[in-house]
Sequence to fold (117 residues):
Amino acid sequence: MTGRRWEFYSSPAGRDKIADDIKRARLSRSELARLELLLQRIAERSTYPRDVKALRDGVFEGRPDGDHRIFRVVYAEVACGVVLLALHFFEKRRQTEPKAIQLALDRLSDWRRRNHE
Fold:
């Protein structure tokens, strides 16, 4: 099965915000491997029901398991594939914070405007 292509959100100035999120998170090797596996499954449309949750307005969260922490991959499906909007971390099991969802929605709007979608 061929997968869709991932795009990572970058700011209007060209800064790779996802690389910033990943660097700041200091993912362990196993967390990075789980993140890569989940991104692959999302791109191939072969996720398990527990892997993905719709948030709102076309924004979804992927739920990879961390080593000793919880993190979420926030993304949107677009015409050319999938765009990764943010990576968020939590101390306890809880819902994605409204401000994290709003950040993803703002980034998606910006991405669509700059990519004529």
Summary: Residues 5-115 form a domain with the YaeB-like fold fold (CATH 3.30.2310.20). Residues 35 and 71 are 9 Å apart (CA to CA). The beta strands are 5-8, 52-56, 59-62, 70-78, 81-90. DSSP finds three helices and five strands in the chain.
